[in-house]
């Protein structure tokens, strides 16, 4: 990261506007739909251990530098915590990205930097991780990936290095001294399985290792006792039939919390004691898995969790923790939102709190524990005023076979609340994904144009227990599709949607569900649209990246099956003649996950059947839309298409 002098000072005034206009932003007029696609201007805020400084990662989309170097990037500013005045500034370079940011001590920060490839707006290289001084004058590049700091030892870190074997990456963990680049440091441990994810405690001991094999069976192992010695197997999903996942480790290495799936119903949270290798269930929600973990001010210890994806509810299951009372005050101050402490001072009197809600795309506050108040630091998207954004509410319905479904409905901020034109948006994935009540760029964008936006967590979705997720296996075009249909009819019955002005749109699996909805329900929708979707299920065994591994082939056999007759019956491209409404489909030509041939063949089948179809390819896009110009083009086309076919008579 380069440190600039007078040449860069001219840009600081523009960057300061992000902070100076926060209060005024709330009084802005309703944003244009294009404004929803703008990248957040503030991406991270972290407080120093002594509580006197804030490290802020923020975008400079107008470019910094001269000549060929005048390109967008993320910059790091060090600010006075009391006044927000800039004291130093570090530049990640042209097209630079700051992925991770944290203080090591009062004078040094850990910064992870990547660089976008401008052709695709994607970073292809691994991040460079460095320790930089607060004034930006010194830098130490880590010899491997950062794993953890060590409490009371600011001069050493734990790093993990990947050593590739025949079946995958084996992580080895070393303790390295900051500032010394020679040697590997002190060897600490090795992961017990390939491709493991590791957790460490504050004393420098690696406590957990979680991994998945080629058949998607997961294993959780622990270092018990003093954190050394051999690994102890805690769970093997192939044998237990459930999965276990650490939520966090107490810095002292005394205990941890684990989320463990159940064969029926939602998961349970267990307290795990390292000394005795014992697990005790402490909480289980009636309907929901853990949505998000609530950590103490140390950023490591779980003290609770949020539940209910469509209506976030905070539960404190570690009430004896010293930060529990303060955290409860913070949670009470932001009802309807998810609030997390992202960093705190060493004495725990000051903390940075990040919030997100249905109309809050991300806000940072500085919480003063002694004064018991929070002051605004920055809004991620200050040009999106909360009081002008669409609202999202939760709903429940009972499907035709008695299964209870949860979903969210986003409505325009102004105008009528009933008999609206509606866009139904099934999520991608489909398994394990879940639509929540939190800010969603696409739903907000669509609702801002006068539409009700309906998203239902059909069976197969995550968040409601592994049996609910598995109930979607082999149900493409069947029960999963019926759930989307039932949610649409529910909105009509409630008077929310005008039955003559409903369209169905989605991406990836959601695009499949959109076109399959037109096959199954030829009179329910007025138009359908899909992006980057698989339309011929049999071809998933021949096209795309899923079929390139044993894991992927096992997954396909498990969730869609191999019967060619059944696959054809549930493939929109084989049932194109059943579609009776206009179709818009788009696809990235560089999509490795779902080959563009799916959309090309679908468009041809529709034309051959005499169906009105608009087809758009994007030459440099993959399974998502990353380039700003393509995003603007796609949503302009989508809005024009939907608007044409949902216009009031």
Task: Spell out the blueprint of helices and strands.
Layout lengths: L5 H15 L1 H4 L16 E6 L5 E12 L6 E10 L5 E6 L4 E8 L4 E8 L12 E6 L5 E3 L3 E5 L6 E9 L4 E9 L8 E5 L6 E4 L5 E7 L5 E5 L9 E5 H4 L3 E6 L5 E6 L7 E6 L4 E6 L8 E4 L6 E6 L5 E4 L7 H10 L4 E7 L5 E8 L2 E9 L4 E7 L11 E8 L5 E8 L8 E5 L16 H8 L3 E6 L8 H5 L8 H15 L3 E11 L1 H12 L6 E5 L18 H10 L4 H6 L13 E6 L8 H12 L4 E6 L9 H19 L3
Parallel strand pairs: 30-31, 30-32, 32-33, 33-34, 34-35
Antiparallel strand pairs: 1-2, 2-3, 3-4, 5-6, 6-7, 7-8, 9-10, 10-11, 11-12, 13-14, 14-15, 15-16, 17-18, 18-19, 19-20, 21-22, 22-23, 24-25, 25-26, 26-27, 28-29, 29-31
Question: Care to describe what's here?
Answer:
The chain is of the alpha+beta class and 649 residues long. The protein folds into 4 domains: 1-124, no CATH class; 142-284, no CATH class; 291-384, no CATH class; 390-646, Rossmann fold (3-Layer(aba) Sandwich). Strands 28-29-31-30-32-33-34-35 form an 8-stranded mixed β-sheet, with helices on both faces. A 4-stranded antiparallel β-sheet has the order 1-2-3-4. A hairpin with a 5-residue loop joins strand 3 (71-80) and strand 4. The longest helix has 19 residues, at 628-646. The protein is globular and about 70 Å long. The N and C termini lie far apart (58 Å).
């Amino acid at each position: 990261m380069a440190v600039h002098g007078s040449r860069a000072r001219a840009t600081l005034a523009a960057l300061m506007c992000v902070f100076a206009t926060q209060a005024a932003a709330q009084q802005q007029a309703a944003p244009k739909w294009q404004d929803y696609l703008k990248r957040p201007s503030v991406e991270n805020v972290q407080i120093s251990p002594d509580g006197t400084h804030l490290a802020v990662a923020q975008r400079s989309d107008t470019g910094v530098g001269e000549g060929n170097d005048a390109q967008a990037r993320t910059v790091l500013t060090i600010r006075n915590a009391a006044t927000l005045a800039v004291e130093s500034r570090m530049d990640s370079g042209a097209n630079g990205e700051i992925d991770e940011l944290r203080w090591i001590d009062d004078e040094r920060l850990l910064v992870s930097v990547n660089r976008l490839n401008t052709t695709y707006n994607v970073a292809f290289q691994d991040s460079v991780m460095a320790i930089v001084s607060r004034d930006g004058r010194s830098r130490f590049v880590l010899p491997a990936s950062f794993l953890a700091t060590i409490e009371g030892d600011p001069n050493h870190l734990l790093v993990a290095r990947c050593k590739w074997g025949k079946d995958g990456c084996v992580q080895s963990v070393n303790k390295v001294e900051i500032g010394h680049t020679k040697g590997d440091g002190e060897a600490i441990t090795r992961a017990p399985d390939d491709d493991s994810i590791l957790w460490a405690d504050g004393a420098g001991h690696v406590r957990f290792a979680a991994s998945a094999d080629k058949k998607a069976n997961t294993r959780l192992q622990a270092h018990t006792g003093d954190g050394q010695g051999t690994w102890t197997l805690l769970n093997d999903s192939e044998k237990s039939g459930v999965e276990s996942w650490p939520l966090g480790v107490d810095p002292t290495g005394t205990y941890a919390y684990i989320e463990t799936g159940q064969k029926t119903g939602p998961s349970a949270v267990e307290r795990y004691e390292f000394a005795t290798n014992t697990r005790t269930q402490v909480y289980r929600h009636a309907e929901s898995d853990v949505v998000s973990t609530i950590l103490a001010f140390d950023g490591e210890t779980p003290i609770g969790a949020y539940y209910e994806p469509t209506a976030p509810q905070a539960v404190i299951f570690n009430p004896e923790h010293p930060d529990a009372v303060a955290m409860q005050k913070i949670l009470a101050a932001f009802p309807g939102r998810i609030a997390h402490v992202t960093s705190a001072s060493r004495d725990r009197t000051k903390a940075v709190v990040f919030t997100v809600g249905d109309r809050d795309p991300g806000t940072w506050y500085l919480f003063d524990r002694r004064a018991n108040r929070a002051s605004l630091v920055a809004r991620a998207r200050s040009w999106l005023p909360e009081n002008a954004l669409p609202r999202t509410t939760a709903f429940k319905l009972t499907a035709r076979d008695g299964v209870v479904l949860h979903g969210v409905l986003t409505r325009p901020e102004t105008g009528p609340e009933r008999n609206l034109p509606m866009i139904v948006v099934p999520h991608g994935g489909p398994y394990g994904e879940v639509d929540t009540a939190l800010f969603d760029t696409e739903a907000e964008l669509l609702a801002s144009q006068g539409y009700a936006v309906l998203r239902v967590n059909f069976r197969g979705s995550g968040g409601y227990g592994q049996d609910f997720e598995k109930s979607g296996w082999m149900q493409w075009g069947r029960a999963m599709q019926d759930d989307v249909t039932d949610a649409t009819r529910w909105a009509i019955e409630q008077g929310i949607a005008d039955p003559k002005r409903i369209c169905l749109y989605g991406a990836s699996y959601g695009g499949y569900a959109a076109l399959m909805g037109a096959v199954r329900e030829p009179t329910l929708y007025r138009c359908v649209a899909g992006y980057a979707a698989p339309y011929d299920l049999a071809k998933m065994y021949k096209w795309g990246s899923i079929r390139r591994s044993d894991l992927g082939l096992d997954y396909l056999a498990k969730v869609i099956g191999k019967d060619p007759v059944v696959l054809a019956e549930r493939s929109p491209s084989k049932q194109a003649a059943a579609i009776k409404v206009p179709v818009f489909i788009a696809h990235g030509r560089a999509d490795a996950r779902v080959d563009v041939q799916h959309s090309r063949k679908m468009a041809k089948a529709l034309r051959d059947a005499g169906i009105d179809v608009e087809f758009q390819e994007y030459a440099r896009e993959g399974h998502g839309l990353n380039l700003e110009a393509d995003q603007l083009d796609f949503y302009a086309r989508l809005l024009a298409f939907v608007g044409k076919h949902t216009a009031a008579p």
